[in-house]
Amino acid sequence: MDSNTRIISRLLTIREQGNEAFTATAGAPEIHIWTQGLPIMEEQLQTMDTADSSALSSDEYKRLVRMKKTSRLVAHCWMVSRIFLRRVLAEYVQLHARDIHFQYGTAGKPYLPGGPQFSLSHTKGLCMLAVTSTNNELGVDVEWMRPLVREQAVVQRFLTEEEQDYLLEGLRSGDDTSILLWKVLTGKEAWIKASGQSLCGQWRKLNTVQVMRNHGQLLEWAGQNYVMQSLNIGKGYSASLCMAGAERVTVRWMNTTENEIY
């Protein structure tokens, strides 16, 4: 069963279940993780330009047209991820994808009035969406683990001293420090998203080391608790999830498995 078939199958299940789509266990909030493949080369667009953009709003379509002037590949990936977002959310709220009307917070983060909390992230070849029925702010980040030309500069600029020590410990233990670094970076980005972007610019102060060393550890910032965990999305990618609150969360993979390789 390919990815698109799994998406359709899961969406039909969500439609049938309605408000019971979220089946939290033992009081733990449930978070649904959805994935969508994206093209990685412009040559692939020759058979993809016919993708239906009718679900987009007029503002989204205008943005798509502007993006195409710079890069057809970037524009197409953005369109696919946006339609994917609309299709999935539409089933949770029992609407047509084109009838989804987003509003935006002060930092530009989209939200759906009266709908579930969600967070969308996309990178080379892959788009990831996290959805939850709770009112807690949610953040997800996925990154293709590309080589960093100035890796040491990134470490010094964005990581706390404790996080830098964590990388050194991994180096001494023979671990792949590039994988550890991406794990920290995606954790920080997910944390920033879960804060409603209010922590943007605080990279050097956000300390994820407790989570890196003790899976599922609580984080705290300015009196607000957050729960963070890494997601095993497959070879070549790093992903992290973060949600405001102190309750342990249950992750439910909707159209893929946590060990699937892209």
Describe the structure.
The protein has 262 residues and is α+β, with helices and mostly antiparallel strands. It contains seven helices and ten strands. The strands form three sheets. It has a four-stranded mixed β-sheet. The radius of gyration is 19 Å and the shape is globular. The chain starts with a helix and ends in a 9-residue tail after the last strand.
Quantity of strands, as a count: 10
Q: Name the overall outline.
A: globular
SSE sequence, one letter per element: HEHHEEEEEHHHHEEEE
Separation, N- and C-terminal Cα atoms: 14 Å
pLDDT averaged over residues:
87
List the helices and strands and how they pair.
Blueprint: H1 3-17, E1 30-37, H2 58-68, H3 72-93, E2 103-104, E3 110-111, E4 117-123, E5 126-132, E6 138-144, H4 151-158, H5 161-172, H6 177-194, H7 209-213, E7 218-221, E8 224-231, E9 237-244, E10 250-253
Parallel strand pairs: 1-10
Antiparallel strand pairs: 1-5, 2-3, 4-5, 6-9, 7-8, 8-9
Supply the key terms:
4-stranded antiparallel β-sheet; alpha+beta; 4-stranded mixed β-sheet
How would you summarize what this structure contains?
By secondary structure, this protein is α+β, with helices and mostly antiparallel strands. The protein has helices spanning 3-17, 58-68, 72-93, 151-158, 161-172, 177-194, 209-213; strands at 30-37, 103-104, 110-111, 117-123, 126-132, 138-144, 218-221, 224-231, 237-244, 250-253. Helix content is 35%, strand content 22%.
